[in-house]
Write a structure and sequence with these properties.
The protein has 354 residues and is α/β, with parallel strands linked by helices. 34% of the residues lie in helices and 27% in strands. It has two domains: 121 residues, 3-Layer(aba) Sandwich (Rossmann fold), CATH 3.40.50; 196 residues, Dihydrodipicolinate Reductase, domain 2, CATH 3.30.360.
Length: 354
C-alpha cells in the first residue's frame, strides 16, 4: 500500500463539494482524480480543486491500477452499478447516502463487497457531528436506559432541490423519503443501537408542489417534471418491541428555526430518561424528590461532519478496521423506506423481509 491512499471522486456536483476538503486534509489519503459525464463542469472543478487527472468515463477510471479508493457522489439511481463496478475492480468504496434506493440493490452491493474483500461505507455524515457523538456516548453508557420509542423528523418549508435528479424517480428512487429520511432515520436508529425493523405503516402526500406559484427558496419555480412524494410519515416497529415515528418533507407549512428552511429533530424515550437532538438535552425524573432533572450536554464543534467521515473511512482502511457505516445498516434503512412506500400503496401495515 502507498504512503497515502489514492482517492478518485466520481460526480463533481452537489455534495462532492463537501467531500473534497475531507480528502485533501486526511492524513491517510490524497485526492488524485475526478470523474464526471459533464466535461465542462469537470474541467472547472479540476481547476478549482487543483486536480489535473480528469475522467469523462468511469470505466477508464476504474481500470487505473493506482487508484485505491472511489468516492461515489452521483444521483441515487446510479449508486449501485457504480459501487458494484468499483468493488469488482478492487477499489474501496465510500458512497454518498443512500447506498442505493432499494434493498435489492444494496444486497447486490454487499455481495460485491464480500467477493472483493474491500471496505464499503455509506456516507452518513450526521453520525460524525460533534453533537451526535456526544449524545451517542451517553446513550451507550445507558444514561437513558432501554430506549423503547423515538420520534424523528426532517422537515423543510418550501425547500425542494430544484433538479430532476431529485424530483424524478428514475434518477432519485424517491422524494424526501430517500433524500431526507435516510439522514434522520439513520441517525435515530444508530442512537437506538440499530434494532431490526419488523413492520412499517406509512403514508405519502404530493399536493403542495402542484399549486400555482409553488416555489423553492433554493431555486425559484419548482421543476415541472415531478413523480415523487413531497411528504411522508411512518410508524416502525422493531424486533425488540421498540417503536419509531418518522416524518419527512420538502414542502410543508411548518414553522422553521430562525434563518434556515429546515427543522431536523430527534426525541429518544428510555425507561431511565429521555433526550433531544440536536439540543442534546437529557431529561430525567427523580422519583425520590418528584422533581425533573434536565441537563444539556456540551461539546465543541471541531471539523465539519463530511470531513470527519472521509477521515474515518481512510483510517479504517489503513488500520484494517471495520466500516464506520456498514452496508447492512443501510439495508435496514432502505427496507424501512421501501416498506413505507409499499404500505402507502397498500393502505395498511406491511411486514419487512429481513
Amino acid at each position: 500500500m502507498p504512503n497515502k491512499l489514492r482517492v478518485a471522486l466520481i460526480g463533481v456536483g452537489g455534495i462532492a463539494r463537501a467531500h473534497v476538503p475531507g480528502w485533501k486534509s486526511s492524513p491517510h489519503a490524497e485526492l488524485i482524480a475526478l470523474a464526471d459525464s459533464n466535461a465542462e463542469i469537470l474541467r472547472q472543478k479540476g481547476q478549482e480543486w487543483e486536480i489535473a487527472r480528469l475522467y469523462n468515463d468511469v470505466e477508464s477510471l476504474l481500470a487505473a491500477q493506482d487508484i485505491d479508493v472511489v468516492d461515489i457522489c452521483v444521483p441515487n439511481r446510479y449508486h449501485a452499478p457504480m459501487a458494484i463496478a468499483a468493488l469488482t475492480a478492487g477499489k474501496h468504496v465510500m458512497c454518498e447516502k443512500p447506498l442505493a434506493p432499494t434493498p435489492e440493490e444494496i444486497r447486490g452491493i454487499i455481495e460485491a463487497r464480500d467477493r472483493s474483500g474491500r471496505l464499503l461505507m455509506t456516507a452518513q455524515n450526521f453520525r460524525f457531528d460533534a453533537r451526535s457523538l456526544a449524545l451517542k456516548a451517553e446513550v451507550d453508557k445507558r444514561t437513558l436506559g432501554n430506549i423503547y420509542h423515538a420520534r424523528c423528523w426532517m422537515l423543510r418549508r418550501a425547500a425542494t432541490p430544484c433538479r430532476t435528479s431529485f424530483t424524478l424517480k428514475q434518477h432519485s428512487g424517491g422524494g424526501p423519503c430517500i433524500d431526507l429520511g435516510v439522514h434522520i432515520l439513520d441517525l435515530t436508529m444508530w442512537m437506538m443501537g440499530m434494532p431490526k425493523p419488523v413492520t412499517v405503516s406509512g403514508v405519502t402526500h404530493a399536493q403542495l408542489h402542484k399549486q400555482p406559484g409553488a416555489f423553492s427558496v433554493w431555486g425559484g419555480a419548482l421543476p415541472r417534471e415531478w413523480d415523487v412524494e413531497e411528504f411522508a410519515t411512518a410508524l416502525v416497529r422493531f424486533n425488540n418491541e421498540a417503536s419509531l415515528v418518522l416524518e419527512v418533507s420538502w414542502l410543508l407549512h411548518h414553522k422553521m428555526p430562525p434563518g434556515i428552511p429546515e427543522d431536523m429533530q430527534i426525541w429518544l424515550y428510555g425507561d431511565r430518561g429521555g433526550a433531544h437532538w440536536p439540543s442534546n438535552q437529557l431529561l430525567r425524573s427523580d422519583i425520590g424528590s418528584r422533581q425533573f432533572i434536565d441537563t444539556t450536554l456540551t461539546c465543541d464543534q471541531d471539523l465539519p461532519s463530511h470531513t470527519k467521515e472521509c477521515h474515518a473511512f481512510a483510517e479504517a482502511i489503513v488500520n484494517g478496521g471495520a466500516s464506520p457505516v456498514p452496508a447492512e445498516q443501510s439495508l435496514y434503512l432502505m427496507s424501512i423506506l421501501q416498506g413505507l412506500y409499499r404500505s402507502a400503496d397498500a393502505g395498511g401495515e406491511v411486514t419487512l423481509d429481513l
